[in-house]
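Hi support team,

I've been running sequence recovery on a batch of backbones for a student project. Most finish fine, but this one hangs at about 90% for roughly twenty minutes before it completes. I'm not sure whether the input is malformed or the queue is just slow. I've pasted the structure tokens below so you can try to reproduce it. Let me know if you need the job ID as well.

Thanks,
M.K.
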């Protein structure tokens, strides 16, 4: 019986490449906010509130792309439903933020405005923990983990793989989106949650709070990146890569793929849930459209564009694609979706290792 089934592909990045990326993340997370304190507004080096919100939002997306890399790049499981876990974390945080509004809402009621408008008389049972920040943090982790655990257990135990697994993940996300659109579920219907005012009793619409949330998001991204790097370099990570390359041989070697696939599936879902919670605090809104199939597909696009099984690649992919999206949706809004589709096709056909793989090839050609 073999102890470890080794992956067939070597690393795309050298140690210096990892170090450079980690330093770049630290600079974004720590140095940029400090520079804002000493650089006057109007300077090209001063980050505006819009830039802080945009980069903070993209860092949330980068966490999702990193989660996708763990299951798709390193385990070979393509999910088209990770937008659901992102939204669940966002809704858990959104419920807390709605409770923080209190009587400052339009209807001067302890109930959220949308409940008063719909003539609700009391808080639904599933809002019971939403008044506590500690309980909210627990729900941000627990809700995606629970849904992913139940779904993944039955799917992986039934040995559903490939395109069939991708289809049912998308169906699960779409069905949940339709459920959240219904007013009677108590999640705000079409409009979702918005008009947040405070977090932990402190106002949210201030430059200092935006910068604080920006730094927290950057540090969480860095933490998840280091965790993922450690994970894929461990024996556990090598088994995941072996499952990706030859699952049958892994079974014959004495390993049960079910536990490995289910655990990494839940870990990636929790990462997306945390990203969703951070996203809501910075963007200021969460609604069922975050669960749309298109959003989940975009997460896969970020991972593919940057380079699967690299960890760094999906993070770069999230910044590249969303940076282009921010510009194109303003300059050429009617062409954005065509660009996204063409980009995914081009990467699939000509850049299977994404941007990171292309950089390595160019370095090899120069050498």
């Amino acid at each position: 019986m073999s102890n470890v089934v080794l992956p067939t592909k070597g690393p795309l990045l050298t140690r210096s490449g990892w170090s450079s990326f980690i330093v770049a993340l630290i600079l974004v997370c720590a140095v940029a906010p400090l520079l804002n304190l000493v650089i006057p507004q109007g300077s090209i080096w001063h980050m505006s509130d819009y830039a802080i919100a945009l980069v903070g939002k993209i860092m949330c997306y980068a966490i999702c792309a990193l989660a996708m890399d763990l299951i798709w790049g390193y385990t070979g499981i393509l999910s088209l439903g990770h937008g659901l876990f992102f939204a669940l974390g966002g809704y858990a945080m959104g419920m807390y933020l709605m409770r923080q509004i209190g009587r400052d809402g339009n209807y001067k009621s302890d109930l959220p405005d949308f409940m008063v408008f719909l003539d609700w008389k009391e808080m639904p049972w599933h809002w019971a923990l939403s008044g506590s920040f500690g309980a909210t943090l627990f729900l941000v982790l627990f809700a995606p983990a629970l849904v992913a655990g139940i779904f993944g257990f039955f799917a992986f135990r039934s040995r559903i793989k490939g395109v069939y697994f991708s289809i049912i993940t998308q169906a699960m996300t779409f069905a949940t989106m339709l459920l959240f659109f219904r007013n009677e579920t108590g999640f705000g219907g079409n409009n979702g949650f918005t008009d947040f005012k405070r977090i932990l009793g402190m106002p949210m619409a201030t430059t200092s709070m935006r910068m604080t949330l920006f730094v927290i998001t950057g540090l969480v991204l860095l933490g998840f990146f280091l965790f993922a790097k450690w994970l894929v370099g461990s024996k556990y990570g090598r088994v995941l890569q072996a499952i990706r390359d030859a699952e049958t041989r892994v079974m014959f070697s004495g390993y049960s793929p079910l536990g490995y696939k289910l655990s990494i599936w839940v870990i990636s879902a929790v990462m997306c849930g945390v990203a969703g919670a951070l996203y809501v605090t910075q963007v200021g809104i969460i609604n069922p459209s975050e669960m749309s199939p298109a959003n989940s597909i975009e997460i896969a696009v970020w991972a593919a564009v940057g380079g699967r099984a690299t960890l760094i690649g999906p993070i770069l992919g999230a910044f590249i694609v969303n940076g282009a999206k921010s510009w194109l949706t303003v300059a050429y809004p009617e062409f954005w979706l065509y660009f996204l589709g063409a980009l995914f096709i081009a990467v699939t056909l000509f850049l299977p290792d994404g941007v990171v793989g292309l950089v390595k090839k160019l370095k090899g050609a120069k050498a």
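--
Follow-up from support: It reproduced on our side and the slowdown came from queue contention, not your input. Confidence is low (pLDDT under 50) at residues 4-10. No action needed from you.
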